[in-house]
Amino acid sequence: MRKTIAYAIPDIVHFKKAALQWAQQFNEVTWLDDNNHNSKYNSFDALLAVDGLTAFVTDAENAFKDFEEYQRTTNDWLFGYLSYDLKNDVERLSSKNSDGLHFPELYFYQPKKIIKITGNTAEFIYLNMVDDEIEEDYKSITSLEVINAIKENPKKIKIKLRIFKDEYFKKVTKMLQYIQRGDIYEANFCQEFYAEKTTIEPLSVFKKLNKISKAPFATYLKIQDKYILSASPERYLKKEGNVLISQPIKGTAKRSTNKEEDDSLKRNLSLDKKERAENIMIVDLVRNDLSKSAIKGTVKVKELCKVYSYQQVHQMVSTITATIPDKKNIVEVLKETFPMGSMTGAPKLSAMEIIEELESFKRGVYSGAVGYITPEQNFDFNVVIRSILYNATQEYVSYAVGSAITAKASPEKEYEECLIKAKAMKQVLENT
Asked: Is position 250 annotated as part of the catalytic site?
């Protein structure tokens, strides 16, 4: 059971910074921030969960079945992530590529303390065992002197490429051969950038990334020595009552500081036949995934190929909704739709097999999902893209980017798109 006390906050900007800073004392921290995007589908402005009472960690084998049992037993707020390689539990697949991060495939914890921020109100949602600490924590956060200065990395970070440009072109060409042969229509091909024997200050890196990107699904997640620092623009799946909402992204264009040029880039993206075709293919895939859980006839496309503008890029987003039966198990819903279509391809199984063959790194948390589940059986998960992953013990830093390969794809243009997507992470890590 939990106790909730709400406070009116006079300076919400300061409070948000202070709350994230205060949270650093705990081994488990999840910070979710919509950066004032004010989407009609969002349930809060920011959400903080700290200090795990219980946790569930597993590899891919029977992961969803065992997680379902943990979720049912706790029947409480849970925060954590699903890694891409849970595909091996959904289908008869494997992951044998290089893994420098060594994150568990699935990690969720039941936090003792949650702070939900909506407008100028902060709700402290604490387990009864710690509810006598609410007032003390509220005073600690509001009186905290926020450190606004962002620490720079003391040593220059040397970022390496897992594959070089020539090899990237060869692998994309091979993927195009699979498409021409009819094995797949589309697949998301990704590449890793990494740094070894490297230490970073995760909170500072997250602040820099968030300042540059101001993404609607920004995430700072700390699990002991492992960190997810995300500027994700994409929602994987949300459940609110009986309604599921998925918002896949396919289609990217750079931004310009010149308004006329920026408007032109946005308009051209909205009219780009190749980008629209990519997006529509994934919309069909998502509709198919949602139909596994949904009541017949309830899967609807609410927005098709709508262009949204973010700090770094313009993105083409579609919104698909569905209604599920009252007693539908929520972990089953996740399993039936995972991994998300925007990061796999169509047909999904063939795309995942080809991705595993051609990519040179184990995706792990990248292109998985971070989010939460509520006691009311609601949930919301992002897509882990535009994210820096860090294992402090291994001293390994990684970020990955990808793009959708279709019949009309040009290896050169896909490579350029990857570099646009990588720009913010590279900038943050290299102190440029």
From this structure: yes
